[in-house]
Amino acid sequence: DAADKGGWSSFMAKEINEQPEAVENTVRGRVVDGLVDIPELSALGDDRLREIDRIIIIACGTASYAGQVGSYAIEQWARIPVEVQLSHEFRYRDPVLSDRTMVISVSQSGETMDTLMAVKYAIERGVTTVSVCNTQSATIPRESDAAVYTHAGPEVAVASTKAFTAQITALYLIGLHLGRVRGTLSAEASAEAVQQFAELPEKMREAVATHEQIAQLAHWMADTRSVLFLGRHVGYPIALEGALKLKEIAYIHAEGFAAGELKHGPIALIDHGQPVFVLVPSPRTAPLMHSKVVSNIQEIRARGARVIAIVEVGDTAVLPYADDVIRLPLADALFEPLLEVVPLQWFALELSTAKGLDVDQPRNLAKSVTVE
Ligand code: G6P
Questions:
Q1: How many angstroms separate the CA atoms of 321 and 299, rounded?
Q2: Rounded to whole angstroms, how far apart are CA atoms 90 and 177?
Q3: What is the pLDDT of residue 113?
Q4: CA-CA 20 to 30 A from 346: which of 13, 96, 104, 224?
Q5: Please, are residues 291 and 324 in contact by the beta-carbon 8 Å criterion?
Q6: Using CA atoms, how far apart are residues 371 and 87, in angstroms rounded to an integer?
Q7: CB neighbour list of residue 267: distance below 8 Å, 6 or more residues apart
Q8: Is 167 close to ligand 1, i.e. is its CB under 6 Å away?
Q9: In terms of Cα–Cα distance, which of 217, 247, 173, 206 is closest to 339?
């Protein structure tokens, strides 16, 4: 068993560490002459892809947050409206579907019953179904019109890590493929995204290397009973994912918020010593969002919050207001989530460990939920 963990203390630790390769392997073979080309999507026929006028991403849990991150990129590159729905909610709203709708399911296992039933519902209504899945020949990809596999390798820990970053990667590739086929993606934007993917594994290694700093932080915070996470734009689903990880394996109350929503309610929760992780957008690529998030930090700090800021290296604007600063390598705005989530994964793992819990096998949870 210890050998399976490759010297790591848990499968989750091993899998966090494997993320640079998970992402690299998911991109491999899908970039041709500097352009994203996914053979499984090409097989659907370019005409069919050009006709798509709406995308619905369906998923549960961590996969749904990957879907939310992906929705920003697909809209930006392919200019198709994208919404994300939880699989178990999808059917019950009598969704508006047509033969020009594409439903993209996201599932690590490919066996989650809620998602499978939603996919079957979509198939019955004649929409195009695409499966983003990490498990070869699982039921969901077999039922779908096209399968775009993530190549993260087997994920053992119940709390999903490398499958999540691989899912975001696959959704981005789908966005780039659709953008190319539909002519909405400039050659420049395409080249920039491909370049970002090429640089990503090395940057993710640096994100993984925040482990020691995060372990120290978690050690100090072992008695914490509630943690909040704030993010804007693609940082928002990462805030939700950071909170979910803490609930899953550290059994701590945690909530993620859109930073802009703070003043509409959640700020009332801020009290002396309340830990808040803030995902700070880049001041270079997103100056407007950056300054808004910095003022959010000032607001919560003035009310006593303990601020843990996750920033890009060189961002000094937050220094006067942050109790802890975690620095990540520079990346384009859409690629920041793939780095930002890593310290949050480590934080959940280290807090769980500090509390003496079983990181890989949290109570009441299953890796794959095959009942509705
Ligand atoms: C379970 C797991 C979660 C996972 C969710 C979706 O609830 O505990 O970690 O995110 O299922 O799983 P899937 O295999 O569909 O990605």
A1: 10
A2: 26
A3: 97
A4: 104
A5: no
A6: 13
A7: 299, 300, 303
A8: no
A9: 206
- The half-sphere exposure of 228 on its side-chain side, counting CA atoms within 13 A, is 23
The answer to whether the CB of 38 falls within 8 A of the CB of 174 is yes
pLDDT of residue 56: 98
Please name the amino acid found at residue 198: A
Specify whether the CB–CB gap between 262 and 230 falls below 8 A: yes
Give the position of tokens 């981005």. 172
Query: How far apart (Å, rounded) are the C-alpha atoms in residues 141 and 110?
Result: 7
What whole-number distance in Å separates Cα of residue 5 and Cα of residue 49? Answer: 41
- Give pTM, 2 decimals: 0.97
In sequence order, the 6+-apart residues with CB closer than 8 A to the CB of 370 are 111, 112, 113
In short, whether 112's Cβ falls inside 6 Å of ligand 1 is yes
Residues of the chain with pLDDT under 50: none
Which DSSP letter does residue 244 get? Answer: H
Residue tagged 């993620």 (tokens): 256
**What's the CA gap between 238 and 231, in Å, rounded?**
7
Q: At what angle do helices 19-27 and 187-208 cross, to 10 degrees?
A: 160
The ipTM value here is 0.96
Q: Which residues are catalytic?
A: 367
